[in-house]
Amino acid sequence: MNRMVGLVVVLGFLCCGDGLETQGSLLLASGAPQSAPQERPFSLRVDVDLVTINLTVLDENGNKVTDLRRDDFTVYEDDVVQDIFDFQPVDAPFHLVLVLDTSNSTRTSLSLIRKAAVNFTGELRPVDRIAVAEINFFVREVQDFTSDRRALRRSIERLTTYPYGGSKVYDGVGQALAQLHKISSGRKAIVILSDGMENSSKTKFEELRYLLAQSDSVLYPITIQNKDRQKDQLEHYIRTHSEEDPFMHNARTSLSVLEEVYQIQTERLQILAEETGGKIYLVNDLSDLSGEYSKVAQELRTTLGLAYYSKNNARDGRLRRIRVEVKNPKYQVRAKSTYFVPKE
């Protein structure tokens, strides 16, 4: 049964308008529950024109620069200089949502995932407040924002693998944005651990791009590369089932496009991360997972924050371009690059 469920997740990549989401009928064929809670599309309401930007500054050797001040920066929106309203040094606290994949594909690695996640919360600063959510065939908030590391440990260690296929990566990010939108001020981040294989979200890729552009959150995807395991699953299924099997055609087709699917999914997560000022981390070996979490924790400990009130008061539904420059020409800035205000 487990092998079939894992297969159906892969087959789902061929369906729907985005080309990479799963139709419910295909998932139901694997034995997944036929009734699910009613879910609504995620939406954010922008009430003010304050734009918050998390940014990382690197010197010519790639080392983080953390001792800068407000006057060291210039911010442009659509090439118009903006007045910096607020500056937050690296020791300003974060509100962070940690999203963990507990879909069927993680069943053999969940103990490592839980351990690495607990260690990650311990590497963040005591003032940082963390929430936990899980994604599988559903999206569920596991723990509200807290600085209590013992409460976080208990919440993470209670996580179990969902027995059916489905991985709502985009909906998981959308849920995290909704949680962070309740926080009125301060720096915000989303760290999502998954195999990157989005296959059942209601939120489409372009919709999520606009949601992130409306928010002031930085995204850090940690993606487990399990393409070879999926390939082995498909090849085993093809070897051990007859041509009359109803899934055989989809299995062969999925195997033929598996490389392309993984490349597209990874590129999409990279785009989402970079547009928020974040970075994607790829994990080839689960034994390296704690090390990748440590890199994210280091990023968060060396992130600066700027905020400005946009000089453009129009509610025109346009995507605006943001550029942050630092006065020292030897320094490079990684920061949010887009900002979106929907029409009234």
Describe the structure.
This protein is α/β, with parallel strands linked by helices and 344 residues long. It is built from nine helices and 14 strands. The chain has helices at residues 2-11, 24-28, 110-123, 149-157, 169-181, 205-214, 227-240, 248-276, 289-301; strands spanning 50-58, 73-77, 80-82, 84-88, 94-101, 129-135, 139-146, 187-194, 217-224, 281-283, 304-309, 319-326, 332-335, 338-340. Helix 6 (205-214) links the parallel strand 8 (187-194) and strand 9. Mean pLDDT is 83; it is low at 1-41 and 43-47.
Key structural traits:
four-stranded antiparallel sheet; globular; six-stranded mixed sheet; 344 residues; alpha/beta; 14 strands; 9 helices; disordered N terminus
Would you summarize the structure shown here?
With about 350 residues, the chain is an alpha/beta fold. It has helices at about 1-10, 25-30, 110-125, 150-155, 170-180, 205-215, 225-240, 250-275, 290-300; strands at about 50-60, 75, 80, 85-90, 95-100, 130-135, 140-145, 185-195, 215-225, 280-285, 305-310, 320-325, 330-335, 340.
